[in-house]
Amino acid sequence: MPLVTISATYPILTKSRVRNLSSGAEATFNVCCCDHTVVVTVLHDESHVTATIRETEISEALLAWLSSTPRRVASYPKDIAYELLAISSMLEAGASTVVEAIKYLLNRPEIPDKVLGLMAVFVWSESESEQRAIPILGESSIGGFASLPLGADLIKAMQIGLDKRYKPLAGMRHLFRAMQEEEPRFRWIDATIALELAIKEALIRKHPDFETLLLEMPSPPLDKLYGPIMKKYLGAPSPYLKDIREGASIRNKLVHRPYGISITKEEAVTYIHQVHKAINHLFAQLYPDWTISNLMQHAISRF
Fold this sequence. Notes:
- By secondary structure, the protein is α+β, with helices and mostly antiparallel strands.
- It folds into two domains: about 130 residues, no CATH class; about 150 residues.
- It has ten helices and six strands, in the order E-E-E-E-H-H-E-E-H-H-H-H-H-H-H-H.
- Strands 2-3-4-1-5-6 form a six-stranded antiparallel sheet, with helices on one face.
- Helix 7 packs antiparallel against helix 8 and helix 9 packs antiparallel against helix 10.
């Protein structure tokens, strides 16, 4: 099989305008990823990191495509997509491993949880030949949320809610933070926190006498809160109990296990959609006669 060297360069993200400047030249490390050695080089100003897999075997099909591919493509061909994406995933994993080590062990709190930006350079070469570019796909997301237009009817409905002192649930803050977050792990955790806060607040708004019980006593499982308890005290159980139950189980593993579980971007987005539906359904049960709450429920349920 052909042997090639493949490299990818990523910007190191930071919340600070001032970079930590290393005292020496570029720093190079070796990281093992999926039985491959990824050589990771951090630029001396810590602005970018390059990950390289040297002399790795690839298929004849991938070599032929790399040799003839145009500069830009909308997607990789099906016969080589998995192979090429697997390589790029190893490169990103190796780069992330080194940057995360620098962040946590050498004290770089200005680096956010998502330590790398989008791939900036993707190149390959054979033997000692000149490097050639590999097309970089634009990052797409399966995320997307239906927004309600602020027309005359909704302005009137909003004013009715304001007059009655209806307001968003505190859990919605965590839900929308999950939407804005990029790291799947934290998206999942925040979305599950949103579920717990939302059902408790809804029950307390409907039945103020529940406040001490819900806030001071051990909380029932989420599927109980959104199931029989919601049915008895808010009129109907959540139609999303399966997602709520599975989501809470995964959240517990994320919080209590340092290793052993990972969440993909697609899984996190799908879960957030279901949580969004569940909370909007809950909100509609809390304010069944309000136009806004019912529109929220039906708009989101199209996903």
